[in-house]
Structures
1.
Amino acid sequence: LRLRCQKCGYETPEELHFCLNCGASLIARNRYDLTLKDFAYAADLDAIQTIRTTGALAYLLKQLTVGDVDRKMASELSLAAQAVAYPSDLDAIVRDCACSLSIERLPEVYIAKSPQPNAFTFGSEEHAYLVMNSGILRALTKNELMAVIAHELGHVKSGHMMYHTIAELLGGGISFSASLVGLDMLSIPISLALLAWRRESEVTGDRASLLAVNNIDVLASLLSKLASGSSTAHPFSHGTEADVGIMDSVGELFRTHPLEVHRFKRAREFWRSQEFLRARRKIQRRQQVLRALVPDCRFCGRDKRVEDLFCPNCGKSQI
Ligand SMILES: [Zn+2]
Ligand SMILES: [Zn+2]
Ligand SMILES: [Zn+2]
């Protein structure tokens, strides 16, 4: 069965869950969808709320400077990186994670040629980019890769990317002048709040990893690989800053993440919590009824409510 995309009209085999043309979810919104409330780290949600209501930042965002940075990165990406093709193992992992986390639109996924084992997201929730360096594909197992991808999708779902970009600029991670994009407008307390939040936001990302992979050992091995890699593979360890491409200068997994030990402690707390169990149950339930979550009956074709598991017209089970 092929499902017609509500956004662009393209028809995609239903088992792919996301439009092959525009990436929009083919599963109509429903009460089984995982929401941020189900798993986001409370300190992250609070901090982002504070940052959002800060006057200077709102002014800055109006200047669309972040959009300029995103455009610059996207155009560099098209030169320096390769889009992940469908069908491929990597594409399947991304769809799988995005389905577990109830993402509304798949990000564009790219592989950048670089030995640094790194991954990051940028853009907006409506149009996100997920970039993985070739180094990370070599260094990780399939499950660890899934954990990385789910972590990044957790950022996408949380709408973190724009604030990440600003925090990267403030931290000097990107070789643009901060004053050029107007970041000198920000007062020091706001800058510090942003940099502090940047680390909190990782807790939410790691929670998304746990929910998608459902295995704490995978996160443990991933974090220990990152910890051992970070001492030798600093983004600026070779050549001058000018020699380093934008892909290496964004230190998503290395520089700005809290020490791996602390990350793991926080992740383990979530793993053992009722909140985790509830969210996992929700994911499993949605998986079980996924085939039913369509607006028309798969047998008689008549309209039905998205959450009807039986057709009100012909009475057949949709699952
Ligand atoms: Zn579409
Ligand atoms: Zn992250
Ligand atoms: Zn029917």
2.
Amino acid sequence: VVNVRLVELTARNWRACADLQVQASQEAFTRSALYSIAEAQFYPNTTTRGLATPEGELVGFALYGWDEDAGCWWIYRFLIDRRHQGKGYGRSGLKLVIDDLASRPDCSVIGLRYHHANVAAQKLYESFGFGQLHTDGDQVVATLDVTTGAPALSSRPRALPTT
Ligand SMILES: CC(C)(COP(=O)(O)OP(=O)(O)OC[C@H]1O[C@@H](n2cnc3c(N)ncnc32)[C@H](O)[C@@H]1OP(=O)(O)O)[C@@H](O)C(=O)NCCC(=O)NCCS
């Protein structure tokens, strides 16, 4: 069983987190961890977390929180370092992110976006019950109703400008 932990970013670990890199072919699919750490400074209600192995190695990054525009909880960024992909860390970490959001007050729907050609993201998200709500250009907007584990197809999160 693969175990990762969600860890807060600190003065000790933020550089390791900022250094996380996706595969070159995935760079069009996501902003970097470094960009996301900078971006999050201006959204104090968002949660930034590193994904760490039991030994403490940083292998991934997540940025999530309440989205006022969408009117639901949102996963803005989720990535695993290229050297650590395909080992189950993404599945293990996404479960923790969903559990964290599902424990927030009034959390029923979680939304996210991914590039339509991002097959790994699509497969991962669909395996957790996310389903396509609509498309926005080259982006798929998908939702999960955490109370049913099925797509929240009746909700209408607005498409957000950022990915
Ligand atoms: C998507 C991502 C987070 C998956 O992380 P990962 O640690 O490699 O994923 P895991 O090893 O835990 O695999 C989980 C599931 O993802 C899917 N998946 C992962 N890599 C895949 C690939 N190359 N092709 C197809 N599906 C893939 C599979 O459904 C897999 O489940 P399975 O092994 O039971 O079939 C990772 O590829 C990544 O960081 N990509 C770049 C950033 C990104 O695109 N993030 C999402 C943007 S919204």
